[in-house]
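User: structure tokens for this one?
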Amino acid sequence: MAELKNDRFLRALMREPVDVTPVWMMRQAGRYLPEYRATRAQAGDFMSLCKNKELACEVTIQPLERYDLDAAILFSDILTIPDAMGLGLYFEVGEGPKFKKIIRTEADVDALPVPDSASDLSYVMDAVKTIRSELNGRVPLIGFSGSPWTLATYMVEGGSSKDFRHIKQMMYATPEVLHQLLDKLAQSVTDYLNQQILSGAQAVQIFDTWGGVLSGPKYQEFSLNYMQKIANGLIREHEGRIVPVIMFTKNGGQWLEAMTASGADALGLDWTINIDDARARVGDKVALQGNMDPSVLYGSEACIRSEVADILARYGSGPGHVFNLGHGIHQFVDPDQPKIFVDAVHELSAQYHV
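Assistant:
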């Protein structure tokens, strides 16, 4: 594998000194880019794009051609694991992901296989290898998965949900069934991320998009415990380098102390928590990633630079900060705006790394 030319993202995750704060954007390969929309149209549909290693590689690298980003993230979807379990993932236009088969009973859970990621999700590993080769050491490649709780919400609800009625009913009425499902998902995610690492991913992120809909004790029991299991089972060194693990729970700012003890190297923050408060609470135990509101990218250049300056000042001096949005970039953002954001992070952060 080619030597890494820009490793500041990996160094920041390990709280090592960097010259400037590294930056990438969640969902940076996405619908806001006209070139992405063109490639997706060429593929025919979203899953066909995910399953074509050349096109998945193309869209992964598209944002790096426009912006001076410090990391690339694998182009895929969090729902590849439930799909590999036989649930029949499909996408309705304007409605998001849906499954042909829904998990509601103990018998449903018993019937679920734990996929062998190397074979059942080989298209993801082929994409990782292709992207890593194409990057040729330019920046590190991030692999990712959904958290067991987040995957379970889609599998039990049958798609997106506003009230999480079915999974919360399972949680309170038959918690042992939900634990059985989450345990299978934790095994699946651990294998999935390890295969991504062996295929060339240099850091991994666990997206716990729906952990924030839980109460504190239930978050610990049904979400964080399973992410901790995954962290404990991951390959943490590969190609002579530590493979950092990032955990991101949307609306999870109230649980930072518990997350800090989970075995992750870095915690992702959404925009509902001030990064100075977060840093005071986690101390020097983990790095922090975040946390500008993606909607700031609708603002003027002065507005974007002001928000970047504020977050950098709040974090303050020293290592351990990866700049990111607090969630994925919105599809309606003008593609010229992220350049202002990325360049501002590099320009305005140098003073904090003297």
